[in-house]
Amino acid sequence: MSKPLDQKTRDELKGLFKGLKDPVRLVYFTQQHACAACREQQRLLEVLAGLSDKLSLEVYDLVRDAGRAQEYAISQVPATAVVGTQDYGIRFYRVTGGYEFGSLVEAVMMVSQGRSGLGPELEHLVALIDVPVHLEIMVTLTCPYCPRMVRLAHQLAFANPRIRADMVDAAEFPQLVQRYEVRGVPRTVINEIPAFEGALPAADAILEILKVVKPDVCEAIEARLREARGERRATTVDPQHRYQVIIVGAGPAAMSAAIYAARKNLDVAVLGDRVGG
What is the rounded CA–CA span in Å between residue 150 and residue 186? Predict the structure, then answer.
C-alpha cells in the first residue's frame, strides 16, 4: 500500500514544521468498520504526525468513544480536529486531500504558532460576534479557491471562541448539498443557514456573518462605511428636529425633489406612506 505523501513532500513538511512552537494534537474520529475515506484519512494523519515531535495523533471511535465525540461536537466520520493549547473549533470532515491538504497544514501551523494571521482591525471586527456561530464551508477537493475560505473560517474560529468552523467535502455529503442548496463552491453556511458563495475578502465575510447573527450590528457598520465613502443614508424622521425642507408625499416627484435638496446639502425630510406614491 503506497504512502499518502511522497518523500519530497514529506521532506518539505519536515522543514516547514521546524517552525512549530506549541504542540498540536490531531484528534481523529473514525468507526469500527472504517470506510475507505476513513482509512485514507487515518493513513494521511499517521504520516503527518510522524514528521514532527510537536505533532501527535489521537484516534477515537465515533460509537465506542461517544463521550469524546460529544466533547468535540463530532457527529460524522471521518472527522479531524486540530487542537493546540485549547480547542479552537477547527474541524475537517472527510479526507483532507487535494487542495484541502494545504488547509490542514495551515491550520496546524496557525494553532501551533498561536496567531490567527488576521490584522488588528479584522480581529476587532470578528470580536463583535458575541453569539455562538457554526460555520460550515462546503468544498470540493479539486477547487483551487475553496482553501482561501476554509483558512479564513479557521482563522475566525481561532480568533473568536464563540465560532466553530468546519471544512466539509460536499462530494461526500449529498444530503447537505441538497439541504444547503449548494450549486457552487466554496459555499458558506452559517448556523445551518446557507449564506454566501465564493471566497470573499475577510472583512466582507465577517459582515456577511454579522448580517445573519447580529443584523443590527451589521447595519450600523455598513452605515458607518457608507458615511466614510461619502454616501448619504436615509434615517427615520425625528419629530423633534427642525428640518430645512419637508416634502409631503413619496411619489416620483417627491423623491426627485428630495434628491435635489440633498445634493444642495439641505436638511430634508420626506413624509409618505410608501416610496413610489
Answer: 8
